[in-house]
Design goal:
41% helix; globular; binds iron/sulfur cluster
Length: 144
């Protein structure tokens, strides 16, 4: 997050990102178009249903996906647009409906506050090796 917020983006090189793009090309983006609204990039939307959709290549449901979509809903709500969200997991053949509630808004605001503290640091925080590091686009930057 610190690297990304300081315009150091390596995602274009990641095989996993490429896989995500291929999944889009093979499935959803044939039917639907990506939409950028301010800071957020929505995979596709269904205006008639008032829904925004996010497609994930992951084989498991992750909290980070939920918070990403909650952030999009929150961002749009602050622009006066009230919509619901849907997470799509094509590899799992599952969809998960996502809605803003008072409780998850509070949780999201806490997360955003913590993120603000990290991005404001003058240098990246000390790295800690985690299981998911090997799949991260920044792996070489952190560990090689
Ligand atoms: S490689 Fe690990 S420590 Fe480095 S940015 Fe990725 S997740 Fe964080």
């Amino acid at each position: 997050m610190w690297f990304f917020s300081h315009n150091l983006t390596l995602e274009a090189d990641s095989d996993l990102v490429l896989l995500g793009k291929l999944l889009h090309e093979e499935g959803y983006s044939r039917k639907f178009k990506e939409v950028s609204i301010g800071r957020v990039k929505i995979d596709f939307l269904e205006r008639g249903k008032g829904e925004i959709h996010e497609v994930k290549r992951s084989k498991r449901l992750e909290k980070a996906h939920l918070f990403q979509l909650l952030y999009y809903l929150y961002y749009l709500k602050n622009l006066g647009v009230d919509v619901k969200g849907v997470l799509h997991y094509p590899l799992l053949k599952r969809t998960v409906p996502v809605e803003l509630t008072d409780e998850n808004i509070k949780e999201l605001e806490n997360v955003l506050q913590e993120m603000g503290k990290i991005t404001a640091l003058p240098q990246p925080p000390t790295v800690e090796k985690k299981g998911f590091c090997k799949k991260c686009s920044y792996y070489e930057l952190c560990w090689c």
